[in-house]
Specification:
about 100 residues, about 0% strand, about 85% helix, mainly alpha, 5 helices
Length: about 100
């Protein structure tokens, strides 16, 4: 496999795995309190925590304040999370291509 083919394969895998910023922000805006944007971005642990805090907030006001602040912070974190996800996909694709090239040698 040539280096050009390897790079094309890597970038194709990254493009396939990339998360949409628009979808993430739509989920954040409409159902962000339930952690939907975090589920979409692969942050399942914090998404569950956000969901639990919001559900508890139905009974008291303080957890809703926490959720509101968390959502505000998430508005600025979403692009970084998407970039982090793309870099992780790129690293995994490079490892996969390296294994393919090693097996062909």
């Amino acid at each position: 496999m040539s280096s050009l083919q390897a790079e094309m394969l890597i970038e194709q895998k990254v493009a396939n795995a990339k998360k949409s910023t628009g979808v993430a922000y739509l989920l954040w805006f409409f159902v962000g309190g339930f952690g939907a944007h975090r589920f979409y971005l692969g942050k399942t642990g914090t998404a569950v925590a956000q969901l639990i805090i919001t559900v508890i907030g139905c009974f008291t006001i303080f957890p809703l304040i926490i959720t509101g602040l968390w959502l505000l912070v998430d508005a600025f974190l979403i692009p970084g999370i998407i970039q982090e996800h793309a870099e992780k996909a790129r690293r995994e694709a490079r490892l996969e291509v390296a294994l393919i090239q090693q097996s062909q040698a």
